[in-house]
Design brief:
Number of strands: 13
Low-confidence stretches: none
Mean pLDDT: 89
Shape: elongated
Distance between the termini: 27 Å
Order of helices and strands: EHEEEHEHHHEEHEHHHHEEHEEEH
Number of helices: 12
Oligomer: single chain
Amino acid sequence: MVITSTPLRISFFGGGTDYPVWYREYGGSVLSTTINKSCYITCRQLPPFFEYHSRISYSKVENVSTNDAIQHPSVRACLQHVGVDYGVEIHHVADLPARTGLGTSSAFTVGLLLGLHALQNQMREKRALAAEAIHVEQELLREAVGSQDQVNAAYGGFNRINFHTDGLIEVNRVLAGPSRLEELQQHLALYFTGFSRTASEIAQEQLRMTPHKKQELDTMLQLVDEAEAIVANPTCSLQEFGRLLHESWQIKRSLTQKISNASIDEIYQAGLDAGALGGKLLGAGGGGFMLFFVPPERREALRMRLKKLLCVPFTFSSRGSHVVMYEPEEVYDKSLTQERFEVYAEHV
């Protein structure tokens, strides 16, 4: 049995990183961190005692006669990619819900790949793990996603990630001491605004409009440089970081009309009125988590102003996807396993 833990992420600043079609032509960078909220995946080889070949448990439960019959696209693709055709049991739980802009889908893929490799007594280093997850999501599943979520999940930590036009992905840890990062944490507050139900629609609209927004993307890229310099310099006021977040959000929400809406705008303005210096909606838009940069002395005022929303406490995490538990299992005789499978298949 193998249990993996994979962190979720907060992306502060980024330009041209959301979709490969952008950064492969122009390049891009993102400033982001993983947090102490994770998704957990348990996987094991399923003993041949059940009337199904594999069992997959997430928001629903699938009992299937072959792995090709699994409906969950990422699970099916990961099993095919790693070459697992024997019966498995996979369970997924997470600290925070999906479709909320924290990279949950890619964290799931990264954690599952790590677990499946461990199940076969194989280790994967961070770069290879991120590359495999990107391959699964972009090439096998043909999803309209970029690469930053997979890299964040595999590496962990507070990083600047550069995407080069030749395909190279460069991960640089931000050079800031623990006290500086703790100071930044104390200025951040995370609020849940509700689920985004139009993520795919927003993605398609961004793909259509962004080629006409190169100037805005260039400005967002410059903000990555400025924000990194602020965090890395302990003599620089962090209030400038908050103001840059505000500027970045104003640019991002202008990329398409679907990123924000009246409800999101109202929440953001309420945060500013309560003393926040800036913030942004995480993820594609339309809903999910709103991150505010607020001076510690105004934190309670912000909480009272947004008391109808759930405030989620978090801290930065430096650890990427990792194996929590690894216990090799006894392997059942293959002929017996095949015989039992054929018997059970007759009753499906």
